[in-house]
Amino acid sequence: MKWKGRLAFRQFIPAKRNRSYVQDMVIYTGSTTHIRHIEGLGISGSVVTTLLDPYLGKGNTIYEDNWYSSPSLFQHLLSHSTGACGTVWAKRRGMSVFTGKMMKGQVEHRQNRTQLVGKWHDKRDVLILTTVITSLEFRTSLMRGLLEEYGTTRCPPKGGRPALDTPLRLTARHFPTEVPQTTGQGSSTRLHCKVCLYSSRKRKERRLTRYMCVACNTLLCVDPCFAKLLKKQKNK
Question: How many other CB atoms sit within 10 Å of the CB of residue 64?
Fold first, then answer.
């Protein structure tokens, strides 16, 4: 891919994370360039599959730039046991549509059975597409990281109560898990959330969820009922 920078000389910055080496390449020689075209992937997707052909079906993960990323390409790679992750253009065919203006630092996501797309707004919108992690896995990993970093109580030098009195051991055992599949309900088992069902509001909600807390053996919505129940147990 042609570099569009303004420097007239080549540079090498060892501190950059993207330093590496070239594993394979295809030199473009016009219409006679050897590229295995695959219907529905376009030129950029066909270039990726041509270069990856010896490495497909081995459980590898590829990270791409938005020039190559697309839902159709990622689905094709996933069907060949190859994960993919990378920035993506919002106007790619098959992309989820995000409506509404986002504030700086705000994050949204859309997910289907195989792909997750996240949108983050800083000075501009940045979209990331992946098949290697789900929204639940990301949140669980984030929670575990926070517990590992802040999950130790600090006692004052002269004794007394710890500086942190939050029962983190309780929280550490409570993680949202998918409800086990039952016969006749297919691959998506959904039951009523306990917090929504027994809400104290006059107009009770009835929301279906496919997540539960194993420690409590309770069906819960990931957001916000999971946090509500933990807060209630902590204050008992």
Answer: 19
Residue ranges of E strands in the chain: 61-64, 83-87, 107-111, 116-121, 125-130, 176-178, 191-192, 208-209, 211-213, 218-219
Residue 177 bridge partners (DSSP):
212
Query: 126 is written with which tokens?
Result: 């940045």
Q: What is the dihedral of CA 3, 4, 10, 12, to 10 degrees?
A: -70
Question: What backbone phi and psi angles, to 5 degrees, belong to 155?
Answer: -85, 140
Summarize the confidence of residues 146-173 as an average pLDDT.
Answer: 54
- For residue 182, name the pLDDT band (cuts at 50, 70, 90): low
Q: How many CB atoms lie within 10 A of CB 151?
A: 14
Kindly state the tokens that stand for 203.
């107009």
| Overall size of the chain counted in residues | 236
Give helix 71-78 / helix 42-52 axis angle, nearest 10°: 30
* Global confidence as pTM: 0.53
Q: Is the pLDDT of residue 144 over 70?
A: yes
Percent of the chain that is helix, strand, coil (3-state, to 5): 25, 15, 60
Statement: residue 139 has pLDDT above 80? no
**Residue 211, beta-bridge partner list:** 178
Q: CA 165 from chain center: how many Å?
A: 32
Domain regions of the chain by residue span: 30-95+107-135, 167-236
The mean pLDDT of 58-77, rounded to a whole number, is 89
In the chain, count H helices and then E strands: 6, 10
- Residue type at 114? T
The owner of tokens 């060949």 is 80
